[in-house]
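## tool: complex_structure
## caller: assistant
## args:
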Amino acid sequence: MANIIEVKDLRKSYGKGENKVDALKGISFNIKKGETFGFLGPNGAGKSTTINILCGLLSKDSGHVRIFGNDIRKDFEQIKQRMNVANAYTHLNNSLTVEQNLRVYGKLYGVKDVEKKIAEVADTFSIVYLKKKEAGKLSSGENTRVCLAKCFISDPELMLLDEPTVGLDPDFADKTKEYIREYQKTNNTTILFTSHIMSEVEYLCKRILFLNNGEVLRLGSSRQLKNLVKTQIVELTLGMKKDKALALIKRSGGRLINYDSEKIVFEINQLNYSLHDIMHPLIKAGFKIKDMHIKKPTLEQVFIKISRGEL
Amino acid sequence: MKLYRINALLLKYYYMSINRLDRIFDIVFWPVIDIFIWGFVSFYIYQLSSDVNILNMIMGGIMMWTLFWRAQQDFSVYILEDFWSRNLFNLFASPLKDSEFIISTVIFGFFRALLTFIFLGLLSYFMYSFNILSVNLLGIAVFGFSLMIAGWAMGIFVASLIFRFGMRVQAFAWSAVWLIQPFSAVFYPVSALPNWAQKIAYILPTSYIFEGMRQLLSGGPINWNYFFISIAINLVALYLAILFFKSCLRHARKNGMLVHPE
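## result:
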């Protein structure tokens, strides 16, 4: 399958001398046609810098970036014609109404039947009632929806969605997530997606790249990433004598996370211990187990552990 | 270069103009204030001296100066609007080329300047019986054209500064033209300036244009010499302004000004 985005040893720094900040320290990755590719990382990891370079708003210091097989330094016009970007932190022109903005951007991207497309995206992102409202008077959630509408108006082959659901209420964020997935499947669109909402990334993205301090830390599917976590969280409900049980769990290799009169939550490092190592002494000591839940690692845990350098 | 993208930006500027009262005010408000103040002053002087030239010189000067002023300011202020809106991100992430950006802004500025010029022409005719059409029309057209190029060059230069240094230099958008007005001999001949100021005047295209205009307003022929000197300086200035604009945009892309306009 052809690569739509090819990034090799991409570097970018800001400032000079003591104030120099290396935003990207030579990252490399490829995104295949029709793939939804996730970008994760803490604030300042380099996600937005990468996206801004990909859409021509920021120049790179060094490295190679090819989109649709074209060099971004030479063929930006052709590249940008086939891609679009949504970033909830940006705005359209404040003094234009939403409809006027969409018309201008539709025409900028050479959309054939602009009015039809405006009606279509306005309906999709529930902004019909906002069409006559000035963009400068939108709430943050409304602005996010309008930015998404602007992105979808040109039916791009490649979309760069940088935190596209920021400011949306949970219901609309969920609908947007569903829409993106359906749209991607129907049109075989390539998407680069960033979000701090792990469930969105997990739901939409085939592969996820973890960035931190301008470096690629991990790349893989969400299952592969979750498998990196070698700890297991166990939630245990016992009937009696909790103090002794706490001591036994500790002695058997469990790391206590939380406990109250009902439950004990602990973590097992699977590299050194198994669930059996902990449960066996408890049962042997006569504890009755009323209930037990084993929590699978989540992408959020992976995110936190990678960000803290624990993975 | 694609015509539909230039059309898209022209549409954007049109919407910006009709949606905002201050943008419509721009076309008429300050020029009308000028026409009123300077018109009354020159009319008063005319009554004292019966020198019809005074009125013509000042009216013609105001109308032509407005052409230059509008051409410069529209270019800079429309760019600032995108800075204020934080719309640069979406605009520059689109397929829009830098050249299309410049051309569309110049075209729209041209029409706004023309509109202001026509409006002032009508106003000065009805208020002071000054008929700009009675002056050599070809002369008005050629010097007006040269003046517009000077305005665009200055507008592009100021816009470049905004891309380079951000909104902290936005005051230039309104004040830049006034820096050169005293040396442009808009209402008086270059010879009226002190020697040191004359040296500055001779490197400005505007001084040749207004000198040429004054000859026309006095009923003289077109001073082609002045016209060609002004055009030559203007073309060099426009070329340098475009180079500077490209360099400042490169800098803006390097330091992230298009992403985080400040």
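## assistant note: The domain at 3-220 of chain A is CATH 3.40.50.300 (Rossmann fold). Chain A has two domains: 3-220, 228-307. Handing back to user.
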